């Protein structure tokens, strides 16, 4: 059992290769919560996010040794606790595993940066059967603490390290509207990065998802919710000592088609999300995302309020 748990934890990562791509890893991503049905319940869960990239050679002197591939994954132990009808607290504890492969294989892993978010539920009448249009919406503000290791002696590939070394501010808005069994959901997340004690500042990050969904109530205990839509991610460039870094080509945009599936059985929830790149311009075209997906499982607890 210990080997299985360890194996799941090692499916984690989130940063990039030697100046390859700041948008590649967890250090750069805008924070995403995703669709979480049963918003009136507490829950605990585990989710893993996986991303694959390929980096092309860059001009001499900029840290590239030729074509390389990167695998990034982040596995979060996370949960939500409701405080009354309108407030929620969510905590995410990530474990990171990063691997770059070129002429050698370079793995890096460890505890990542812990995130805590407070959500205000500004509307939620999803359980009101008599309503023609039903709505669910939260707005959140949180902080990411520098709990993950950022500095490693003799290691200059900052994006591969588990942490960022900085305290970052996170804002997130999640809203969905449902008409009968059909609905639309939008999630927008923005992460404001600060400079760490090594005078390095990762670029701010923005993520926007818009999906169409269908809620299929198979029975009173089983619900299946497929979704399809698009996702946009943008990363600003990193800075060193307050200046744009001259030896990196980070930052960029990517547009993804997004396909999600949520299954709810009683108090158990399973979700899977697949992101398919449509167009992208990462690191001045030197990096391309090949695939990205997320899978998770949640257990919901009854809330008295």
Domains, number: 1
The total beta strand count reads 17
N-to-C series of helices and strands? HEEEEEEEEEEEEEEEEE
**Termini distance?**
36 Å
Level-2 CATH architecture = Beta Barrel
Strand order of the largest sheet: 1-2-3-5-6-7-8-10-12-15-16-17
Helix content: under 10%
Shape: globular
Biggest pleated-sheet summary: 12 strands, antiparallel, barrel
CATH class value: Mainly Beta
CATH topology: Lipocalin
Superfamily (CATH H level) name? Autotransporter beta-domain
Percentage of β-strand residues? over 45%
Mean pLDDT, nearest integer? 82
Can you walk through the features of this model?
The chain is mostly beta strands. It has one domain: Beta Barrel (Lipocalin), CATH 2.40.128.130. The protein is 3% helix and 57% strand. The protein has one helix spanning 2-9, and strands spanning 42-55, 68-83, 87-101, 105-111, 115-124, 133-144, 168-179, 182-192, 200-201, 205-214, 216-217, 222-235, 239-240, 243-244, 252-265, 268-282, 287-301. The strands form 2 sheets. Strands 1-2-3-5-6-7-8-10-12-15-16-17 form a 12-stranded antiparallel barrel. Strands 9-13-14 form a 3-stranded antiparallel beta sheet, with no helix packed on it. Strand 5 (115-124) and strand 6 form a beta hairpin. It is globular, with a radius of gyration of 20 Å.
